[in-house]
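Q: Could you fold this chain for me?
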Amino acid sequence: MAEQASSGTVTGADADTGTNGVDLLPGASHDHEGHHGRRSSWVAVSVIIVGFIVGGVAMVPEPKWWLFWVGAGIVVVGGIMATVGHIFDDWY
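A: Sure. Below is the predicted structure, expressed as structure tokens.
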């Protein structure tokens, strides 16, 4: 039988490697700075959420297309802010 850790942790190994030193995330680079949690990320995502809310409210109870497109424009502005803030650069 294989030796198993009892508490779910592996002793004597790095956090990113398995028991034999094998990389658990091949191709993953851990030397980049994460962009999530920064103020610019929160602002961009908040703008996108506001745009979706505006677009959704425009559809109730009867569609107001001008307001829907204003919401879509707000989402696009938030997407541009997110791209400029590099929050899409650190996919795992």
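A (continued): The mean pLDDT is 77.
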